[in-house]
């Protein structure tokens, strides 16, 4: 009997709607080859919906996704809707509602891609950023007072819980023990006097259970500099919600383009569906032109297949990504080429 996976598709905004169809095409090709099928339910949840109906998704949106095996998301955010409205109206409720506390963001420098960084050579840079995804600096605890008056004030509290930090650290240490055996923790415990020393303390505590992993910690400012100067020295990097977000965009840029980078929002216990999305946003400046780079979405789809128990099919996709970059000069504009999204996807599928 053929296994069928129920996939929720949320294209979202801008180029999100242009990069999910290529990912779907690729998924269907490898599904046929590897003997599984995917059935898709599409949701129009987006800034457009917000402007039309006053909400990014319906009140029962999380419940509508609950019976799906995975969620594939494009991008959220569009001019006319404040970014905090679009993010807190869709992406963050899904991450939290489904306890997707690991945001996994692999970054590689592929053969055939010119990194803007001299020391980022193909085959040498292969990093995974493990970002805490449900607490930390992304917290709604706080508020605004005296709006419009000279004494107006905004307070935002970062939330770091022992349980929340420990579980993402355990995930990162386990991953490091399965990969190169090295882990770097991003901190800022010199300046951030309460939460970051707590983070560091928990890293030391959890490290004791993983003696096979060599680990160190770096202040986020120094770490950002080292990502540019010596990107090949890193294997697994674990970071809080905000630090991980910034660091993974930086790493993607070092690898040539943020258009390539994928992300998995994982509920490791599999009590709820996990969500897969390219790291890039909706890119309103190029939306509607058919020139977006679909690689981030396609690589995210590969991560989804890996999560769904099809590692061979996932590898076929990442091999095809490597091939199209190494063996052809077809490139979208962000990578210095002139190919459209469709032309690039067609070439990748030929090599699949
Ligand atoms: N592809 C997902 C997307 O649109 N991300 C935009 C973004 O700003 N995300 C913020 C975050 O991941 O915290």
**Which blocks of ≥5 consecutive residues have pLDDT under 50?**
none
Q: Outline, from the CA principal axes?
A: globular
CATH class of the largest domain: Alpha Beta
Oligomer: single chain
> What small molecules does the structure contain?
glycylglycylglycine
Number of helices: 11
CATH architect. name of the largest domain: 3-Layer(aba) Sandwich
- Average pLDDT confidence is 97
- Taking the alpha carbons of the first and last residues, their distance comes to 24 Å
Ordered list of secondary-structure elements with their pairings:
Elements: E1 3-12, H1 16-34, E2 36-42, H2 47-53, H3 61-65, E3 70-75, H4 83-97, E4 102-108, E5 126-132, E6 142-145, E7 153-156, H5 162-178, E8 182-187, H6 195-207, E9 214-219, H7 220-229, E10 236-239, H8 241-254, E11 262-266, E12 274-278, H9 295-307, H10 311-327, H11 341-350
Parallel strand pairs: 1-2, 1-3, 3-12, 5-10, 8-9, 8-10
Antiparallel strand pairs: 4-5, 4-11, 6-7, 11-12
The protein binds glycylglycylglycine.
